[in-house]
Amino acid sequence: MSEETEPLIQDRDHGHGGAEQEAAQCQTRAIRIRAIVWSFLALIFILSVIIVLVGPDNYGDIGPGTLPRDPDAAARKLLHMAPVIDGHIDLPMVVRYGWRNNVSAIPLDDKMPMHVDILRLRDGKVGGFFWSVYVPCADSSAEGKEFVNPTWSVRDTLEQIDVAKGLITKYPETFQFTVTSTDVKESIAQGKIASLLGVEGAHQLGNSISVLRQYYDLGVRYVTLTHTCHNAFADSCGYLETIPPLHYGLSPFGFKLIEEMNRIGMLVDLSHTSDMTAAHAIMHSKAPVIWSHSSARAVHDVARNVPDEVLGMIGTGKGQKDGIIMVNFSPSFVAPDGEADVKKVADHVEHIANVVGKKHVGIGSDFDGVLDTPKGLEDVSKYPNLIAELLRRGWDKYELAGFTGGNFLRVFAAAEDVARKLQAAGTSPVYDVYEKRDDFPEWEY
Hints:
Elements (H helix, E strand, L loop, with lengths): L1 H15 L1 H37 L16 H11 L2 E6 L1 H9 L18 H6 L2 E7 L7 H4 L9 H18 L4 E3 L3 H9 L3 E7 L9 H9 L2 E5 L27 H13 L2 E3 L5 H10 L4 E3 L16 H4 L11 E5 L3 H4 L7 H15 L4 E3 L19 H10 L4 H28 L21
Helix pairs in contact: 3-15, 4-7, 8-16, 9-10, 14-15
């Protein structure tokens, strides 16, 4: 009964009192709308007063995620959020030559003689860097034409690894030893300086892919294929001028080295390599590649810098390989004598970004590995000057966050992913032996 009469009651109400009720509701809505409008206008007025009182120069500070208008202040704020990850610092070499590897005597928490110490790392907003565990090329007459004569390169490299790890351990409140891209992010989040290891030259492998694996187990995460000398694996570019080729790029053994680097997750570093070596490595590597400390040859024409035809092989397009070019600050690679400054370094950054895109450029200062530095980039405290210069040139905060470290972390993580997939697929380790070696016994079974 109620189901039949309920609609009739509602109809009767709409017929007599419904119009008055609807009019009251309309009036209430109108009052609410006027209140919202007036509140909004009042808010606009208050904001206008604030802008007038505070001044337009500081308006950029209002709101989350924005940067100050002043480039220097903006650079420091940005680096607080996205600190520098430098691809190449030669601090262990300073310890070797200055203190005979005596880690206990190193005053890293005080003023150091070159470009790097803890106070200046903190001032420069450094979140991580590769400690280069470098030893020089052996004398060519000593190691022989085929690179088979014994040298002390592997021993000395192990000592440099020991030095780097010793300093990291000595200052645990500052440094954290890191071996993965996730480690780096976690270290930065904890306010530590992520510390990675890089071997600067395959001459430090003693012609052995087995040594490569042992370096990886010790925490090394990139190997530069050459230094200023050719080796059993690949051709070097030389130094300022190109040297005659030996292998015309990678040797057959060098191709095998790349394959094992990909399999274990060791980054392929192309700084110091000849153009042909770089091209071979880019085409053969399954993983992204890096230049840990190189600049642009089109900006300053020296052999150590990367030419545009090689840069053009980097990217995410068809036929390209992902990678990053981490720009070197060494004056010899930046500009003619006496002309290197922060603006010239920025020219290299911008040129590389224009050729390959801003997602493929980073920082590889070479601090502590050079005697001279550009004006405005005298040591690790000066990174903000470069960021401020790029801000003046129109780079936004996202592009700069990639440049300071995000681009490297992407490449590093991608190389790790390639290694995981190769290992999951059951890819066998490389056990090839350098064909020129004659130290194996001639046994037959």
